[in-house]
Write a structure and sequence with these properties.
- By secondary structure, the protein is mostly helical.
- It is 73% helix and 0% strand.
- The protein is globular.
Length: 99
């Protein structure tokens, strides 16, 4: 339910509300629910990126990949928005351990 609330709040432009909803969803999913945790971490990364919190976005997308290493969306987000983005500081880009 919190995941859906995050989607709805993002759609309305309430990024802080979406951030809180996704974080609550993550806290409530069982650790074995790799699919939903991957999706939620990926969406959380999108919110952080929209808020210009680039290190947090990178960390969230990497966490998404820890649940589903083959996820093309999280992989593409890391490549496009972090590693290939010339506006992102090298200190944020850091380790390029992308699956």
């Amino acid at each position: 339910m919190k995941y859906v609330m995050g989607l709805e709040r993002k759609e309305r432009g309430d990024l802080q509300g979406a951030l809180r909803a996704y974080q609550t969803a993550i806290d409530n999913y069982p650790p074995t629910d790799r699919y939903h945790l991957n999706e939620t971490w990926n969406n959380l990364g999108n919110i952080y990126y929209a808020l210009s919190e680039y290190f947090a976005a990178k960390t969230a997308w990497e966490k998404a990949l820890s649940y589903l290493p083959e996820d093309p969306t999280a992989t593409e987000n890391l490549h496009e928005f972090i590693h290939e983005n010339t506006d992102i500081l090298e200190e944020i880009k850091g380790n390029r351990n992308i699956h």
